[in-house]
C-alpha cells in the first residue's frame, strides 16, 4: 500500500510540475512583456502576471493534478484564493528583496522567487484542494 501511495504522490508531483512549468511560462512571459516592453513597474507587473497564472494553475490543478472526489465549493475556492493572495504577497515581497535590496535584475529575481513560491503552492494546494 505504501508503494502505491508513493507512486501516486510521485505522479502527482510530476503533473504539478508540468502545470507549474506551463504556469511559470505564462507568468514569466507576461511579466517580461509588461516590464521590458510596456515599462510597467516590476511589482505591478508581477501582480498581474502572477494573478493570471494562478487562475490557469487553479483550473488545471482541480481538473488534472489533484484527486478531487467532490465538487469544489465556494468555500474551497475562497480558501484557494486566500492562499493565492498570500502567495502573491510572498512573491511580491521576495521579488522586492531580490531587486531593491540584493540588486538582482528583475528578470533573474522573478525566476528565483518563482522557485520559492512553487514549493509553497504545492504544499498549500495539496492541503486545500485535495484535503
What is the mean pLDDT? 85
Low-pLDDT segments, ≥5 res = none
Distance between the termini: 19 Å
Fraction of residues in helix: over 70%
Structural class: mainly alpha
Share in β-strands? under 5%
The domain tally reads 1
Number of strands: 0
Give the biggest beta sheet: none
- Which term fits the overall shape? elongated
Overall description:
The protein is elongated and about 45 Å long. 86% of the residues lie in helices and 0% in strands. It contains four helices and no strands. The chain has one domain. The model has no long low-confidence stretch (mean pLDDT 85). α1 (2-37) packs antiparallel against α2 (42-65), α1 packs antiparallel against α4 and α2 packs parallel to α4. It has 131 residues and is mainly alpha-helical.
Outline of the structure:
This protein is an all-alpha fold and 131 residues long. Helix content is 86%, strand content 0%.
Notable traits:
131 residues; mainly alpha; 4 helices; single chain
Tell me the layout of helices and strands.
Layout: H1 2-37, H2 42-65, H3 74-101, H4 106-130
Helix pairs in contact: 1-2, 1-4, 2-3, 2-4, 3-4
Amino acid at each position: 500500500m505504501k508503494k502505491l501511495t508513493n507512486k501516486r504522490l510521485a505522479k502527482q508531483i510530476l503533473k504539478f510540475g508540468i502545470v507549474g512549468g506551463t504556469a511559470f511560462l505564462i507568468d514569466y512571459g507576461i511579466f517580461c512583456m509588461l516590464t521590458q516592453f510596456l515599462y510597467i513597474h516590476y511589482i505591478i507587473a508581477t501582480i498581474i502576471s502572477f494573478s493570471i497564472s494562478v487562475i490557469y494553475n487553479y483550473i488545471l490543478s482541480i481538473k488534472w493534478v489533484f484527486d478531487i472526489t467532490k465538487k469544489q465549493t465556494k468555500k474551497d475556492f475562497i480558501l484557494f484564493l486566500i492562499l493565492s493572495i498570500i502567495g502573491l504577497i510572498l512573491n511580491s515581497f521576495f521579488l522586492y528583496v531580490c531587486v531593491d535590496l540584493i540588486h538582482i535584475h528583475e528578470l533573474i529575481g522573478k525566476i528565483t522567487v518563482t522557485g520559492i513560491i512553487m514549493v509553497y503552492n504545492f504544499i498549500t494546494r495539496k492541503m486545500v484542494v485535495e484535503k
